[in-house]
Design goal:
- With 155 residues, this protein is an alpha+beta fold.
- A hairpin with a 2-residue loop joins strand 1 and strand 2.
Length: 155
Amino acid sequence: MRSFDFAPLHRATIGFDQIADMMDRVLTSDMAQPSYPPYNIEKTAADAYRISVAVAGFAEEDLTVELKENSLVVAGKKAAEDKERTYLHRGIATRAFERRFTLADHVRVTGASHENGMLHIDLQREVPEALKPRRIEITSAKAIEKNVVDAKAVN
């Protein structure tokens, strides 16, 4: 396994600590990522996304969607099994699961829906006005001097 040194990144950037920490966490992860349940992430508009999770066999009351800090946690736990059924082949997995998605800053969950065995979670990125690009007017030095008030010595 490779090891990456992020020290140059810390020296050359300001305010990107979270990205370096996240990359370090992903690259040093020893446990394999779970593949159940399968999911899709799609971009539905310029600042809108949708996560679709295949949850065949789960009812709405068996599923939970929670937002904890910048993590979206999707979990499913099937209610008690029906002991009277005898399966000859069981190919539909209904085991408990927990899937985590790390959300970027200013991404909020706008809704979730469950239809046809799919759980759809809609996300919207909303950049605050303070973070949007803005044009700074350039003035001459003479204009700045004109606005400065002359201070007089007291005493």
